[in-house]
Amino acid sequence: MLAKASLHERIVARNPLCTAFFERESEPLAYACRAMAQRFARGGRLLAFGNGPYATDAMHVSVEFIHPVIVGKRALPALDISMARDAWLDALAGPDDIAIAFGPPQGDPGALSALARIRARGTMTLAWPGKNADYAVRAPCENVHVHQELFELLGHTMYESVHVFLEHAQDFGGEAHPQSFLYPFLAPQQSGGSTVEDVAASIRMKARDANDLRMRVADEQADAIGAAAGAMKKRIANGGRILAFGNGGSATDATDFALDCVLPEGGMTPVPAVSLALEPAVITATANDVGTDVIFLRQLIAQCGKQDIALAFSTSGGSRNVVAALEEAGRRGLLTIALLGYDGGEIVRRGLADVAIVVPCDYVPRIQEAQGTIYHVLREALGDA
Fold first, then answer.
1. Dihedral angle at the C-alpha atoms of 161, 166, 168, 174, nearest 10 degrees?
2. Pick from 10, 250, 321, 384: most CB atoms within 10 A?
3. pLDDT in tens, 263-297
4. Whole-model pTM?
5. Would you call 336 exposed, middle or buried from its count of C-beta atoms within 10 A (0-12, 13-18, 19+)?
6. pLDDT per residue over 310-329, tens digit each?
7. How is 307-372 classified by DSSP, letter by letter?
8. Under a CB-based contact definition with an 8 Å cutoff, are residues 49 and 58 in contact?
9. Which helix (H) or strand (E) holds 122?
10. Phi-psi region of 175 (alpha: psi -120 to 50; beta: other; left: phi over 0)
């Protein structure tokens, strides 16, 4: 098992970077969210895209806006257009729409060029990271995993803050100021300035909450992360593969982890992994013909070998399709690893995971952010496996 102290240090090293990043970005992000809310109120859409692992960031943003985890919030139109970015931008992007490009710390030249093209139409553009966009964000660091984690938190606070401004539509005063967030020193002169300030303060508070939770995970779960990495390395050395799965935002995390395994950064050797959440034809066929409870179970039965690893992502620990897949994985002798939230739910109570890594929190966005750190540290711990 890997040393607890080393894993603890890797986890908490994110916190100073997180603090500095959100001190810098909280106010510009608040103004961006206000402009986004104006566009959504006019019928605009969010178009998200990225390449490789950063396509999962686009998936995550899209699912958060379409399927809000905050009870009572309405669905907002969002699409992940990563598969055919340029064609879909040309077909869809209009003057009331918003486009967000995700990429590595150094930026994605192709994505930024696409943003520049549609910005000329009046589409609001967000470069995460990049330059020459309506809201361009500088990367928090060169570490690709930390970079992606902090942009996940940025995306969650964006989603939450847009809803705040939609609830304060009177602040718009019937007049849009789509570029006002680029000039925060003008805030006192704009309608709704106090709301912007409140949202910026809330964003900084959420970043502090994420830091506190990350510290708690480091204190309480470092041993479990080390145990998971050690057990996974043994299976991989014997020819095993990782089968990752989860629902919604957890599906994007499962896919991101699988991509991190087969497209590793830093010269590491690829690790064999697949995401069972990245098979929409199989998932929808199974859900339609049999039921949603078996969408991962059917795939696992078809795909798994004796040395394989079932890696489950679930914020609740009780998703029936995740539980069913873990039950079957256990019966077949797979190593079962689960990244969970709350108290671990049914998966912990029934002992369905050989190693359960539990984020002790009851708010889904914060759970997912902490899980992002966990699976990135887990991937680093696997190394060349």
1. 130
2. 250
3. 998 788 999 999 999 999 999 999 999 999 999 99
4. 0.92
5. buried
6. 999 999 999 999 999 999 99
7. T-EEEEEESSS--HHHHHHHHHHHHTT-EEEEEE-TT-HHHHHTT--SEEEE---S-HHHHHHHHH
8. yes
9. none
10. beta
